[in-house]
Amino acid sequence: MNAIPPGRAQLRSRRVNLDTGRENVVVISRRSTALRPDLFRGFSRVELRSGSKTQLATVLLTDDDGLVGPDQLGMAEPAFRRFGQPAGTYIAVTPAPSPPSLDAVRAKIQGKTLEAPEIGAIVDDLVHYRYSDMEIAAFLVSSANFMTSGELIALTEAMARAGTQLRWNTKTVVDKHCIGGIPGNRTSMIVVPIVAAHGLTIPKTSSRAITSPAGTADTMEVLARVDLSVEAMKEVVASCNGCLAWGGHVNLSPADDILIGVERPLALDTHEQMVASIMSKKLAAGSTHLLIDLPVGPNAKLTTASQAMRLRKLFQFVGDRFGLVVEVVTTDGRQPIGRGIGPALEAQDVMAVLANEPQAPRDLREKSLRLAAHLLEHDPDLRGGTGYARASELLESGAALRQMVKIIEAQGPAPSASKIGTLTIDVCAERDGVVAAIDCLRLNRLARTAGAPLDKGAGIKLYKKIGDRVEQGEPLYRIHAFEPSAFDLAVGMAQLDSAYRIEPQAGAAP
Amino acid sequence: MNAIPPGRAQLRSRRVNLDTGRENVVVISRRSTALRPDLFRGFSRVELRSGSKTQLATVLLTDDDGLVGPDQLGMAEPAFRRFGQPAGTYIAVTPAPSPPSLDAVRAKIQGKTLEAPEIGAIVDDLVHYRYSDMEIAAFLVSSANFMTSGELIALTEAMARAGTQLRWNTKTVVDKHCIGGIPGNRTSMIVVPIVAAHGLTIPKTSSRAITSPAGTADTMEVLARVDLSVEAMKEVVASCNGCLAWGGHVNLSPADDILIGVERPLALDTHEQMVASIMSKKLAAGSTHLLIDLPVGPNAKLTTASQAMRLRKLFQFVGDRFGLVVEVVTTDGRQPIGRGIGPALEAQDVMAVLANEPQAPRDLREKSLRLAAHLLEHDPDLRGGTGYARASELLESGAALRQMVKIIEAQGPAPSASKIGTLTIDVCAERDGVVAAIDCLRLNRLARTAGAPLDKGAGIKLYKKIGDRVEQGEPLYRIHAFEPSAFDLAVGMAQLDSAYRIEPQAGAAP
């Protein structure tokens, strides 16, 4: 245990009801008995110490004794929770040096290639909340422009090792992942029951929406509980061969969660960081065979085939280095998949496909069968090339639906019943013609404005897809919401731009 | 005036006693009547609007109605002050897009060269507090690795135009600047009275210490008031030909103040950003002839002559582009200048030199005369090559001291009397020998630990310099402090490492 520097008083901790997100923040009195305020001009950082427990935090100052007195240390909620000591604990507070691994970030900024131990130290400091937001941004930007293949491998490995590492008793553990961006693309919820019904192990973890109207975890939560512990997840997989759990709850890649929190507001989205993020989670999840879905389209994350090829090669390169079999498929990312956008509306699509309802969206069904077929081919006992037929058989026979019901029952009931939003309006075609394009980004924003994913029943139900003929005044889609203010905003947004481009029929005069 | 989006309620502003530094921060209830909390997962940013007044801010959430109720907008002090509206104002709060100029930062990250209008937009957003800390870090890091000469010019110009621009009635306005890093290097306080006594205009603005134990503004503040308004500064210069004011108070380069706030914690210090920072301030200050002091030494900012040459060329290049005559001198940066480190101890050195006291530090006197000589040569009426003789004459005759007294009287009295720290200890040589090296960084840290610059009388008084012979037990320097805890810490630090390297006498056995 380190000694407290002589002459430094300790402060008594006190919770401050402030949610400061991923950053550890403490509030200190400008007249604090323990701190020299000259050390804290503007934002600065301190090290907190109690026994062997240490933590770095950013300092805010106050003159309000009611908030934090001179002998107190105000801890914002995340800092208090992470420090894990009761209120009233005496905590030594000293000016914090920046984390030593920041030297490696500075070297990278100057053009140096980083070694694996340096990257390991950065990830270790990240997951222990030793980096401020501006330091995280410096790391991300320093490697956004250029990252060697060695750095990519080292980053992936360090991130995979930083959190929970799941291991399974079967030789083959299949997994799928889509890089995202396409509304309604809930194939996992169909692929998992098909593959599990066949008998392959597929312990799927998914994310919640960050900037989209629904993540697979949000949509699955309409049907079942998704915040499973590692133990609960293992039990579900033991009994059902698969699960559909929220990855955030099992802490698969805490470094990734922290990096994403800065990547999103900065809208940084480089291929290398995407590959490190996805592959680290899959390695931590214990997958042996991974199928990657890369949608390509004018509003998708990938807009050209050459971008998709470069990304595919990065995934394969990293997979090869870690002995993870990676298969990459390029899919149609021009428009939403299925009809629903938003958790409850998407869950309806999924259950309609599993139940073989005649009105079930065909594109969601076909894409899911295609992806499931790729995964089934990893079964050595399946005759080569029969994956698609086997997947169709499992879906059409009702085996996939029964498997999904079994998974839902094993995961436990959904935290609350999800009705579809009761405030509705149909957005209609302004002219006769054919749907030529659908702006996925705009539909995502519209569904979010209507309340998704927090209001699970809010969102959009599509009636028309690309290539469909429409007449003037015919509904293109319906907006669903609960909250009047959100509904009004979404309606106004749709009136401004419906996100649909309708062109005169082919052959007709322009 | 922009309309408030339909359905968005407004919040009543309330001051929250929190100092959040340069970042605008607001606190919103998790049950706010006006905000959808799903828009604010983790840290996020909002736009505040009241009439035509708008401002971006980072959001913290709270559940504590006593702090901020559901219909209130808690504004941390800096955000409240900058918004400039009374508490209780109704303010519309909407999710904020990131500032448009951030697209240029993203392009720069991807390797694009920025155009002058893009850089102008970035600087404009910076000085209007539209960038979060992580966005500022992204900008700095994106241009830390590589900046074209065109980008450097554009950044310098945009920064120079973003704040106060001083203009003077004389054709020649001389100025000097040191890039810093050397303790005790207070030549400006001797150069300004010499040059002003000669009759040249030298309206000197200086900075306060950020990471050092004293800036020229801190040391001058021992003798006189330094937080002069633009009008007061002009009056002092009109009557005395020169002044020694704090640049921060006249807002000469607000963009630089904001960038430095992020550069320092990240310890980013690239030559291009240093040149843009210094030259923008000198252009804004209306200087026509600038002398730059580049100390070179093992612990200085520049460690080799080739680094100094590259930096000199950058200064000259930018000077030429803006018609500012730049002269660059390389100086000895191996050890502190003078004997005092810390505002009051340094002020003693300065006044001893000006008063021609026999014990005045010779190195400070010689360096100041040399720098003053360079500036005096800009007087067309002075015979070429006689600058040094003229500077010596002004110093030895007492004209410089009289000019300094006049400047001090014109600027007004110091805010408080500064005594020298009364807790003292002598740090002594542990062996016989010769002082071979002095670690400037360590002495800076030691003086800061003792309490400088906040305790103006705290710091270090040096007895020995490089080349001096010492005997075991002979004092190397004295530490001065007021506060026992700071004193204890500084003593402990000096005992660990005195910052002096003493080697056996030349010729003696090792």
From TrEMBL, chains A, B:
It is an enzyme of class 2 (transferase). It catalyses: thymidine + phosphate = 2-deoxy-alpha-D-ribose 1-phosphate + thymine. Residues 434-503 form the Pyrimidine nucleoside phosphorylase C-terminal domain. One of its GO terms (molecular function) is thymidine phosphorylase activity. Keywords: Glycosyltransferase, Transferase. The keyword Transferase applies. Its EC number is 2.4.2.4. The keyword Glycosyltransferase applies. PROSITE patterns: THYMID_PHOSPHORYLASE. Pfam families: Glycos_trans_3N (PF02885), Glycos_transf_3 (PF00591), PYNP_C (PF07831). Signal peptide: none annotated. GO terms for biological process: pyrimidine nucleobase metabolic process; pyrimidine nucleoside metabolic process. One of its GO terms (cellular component) is cytosol. Belongs to the thymidine/pyrimidine-nucleoside phosphorylase family. Type 2 subfamily. This is Putative thymidine phosphorylase. It comes from Bradyrhizobium daqingense.
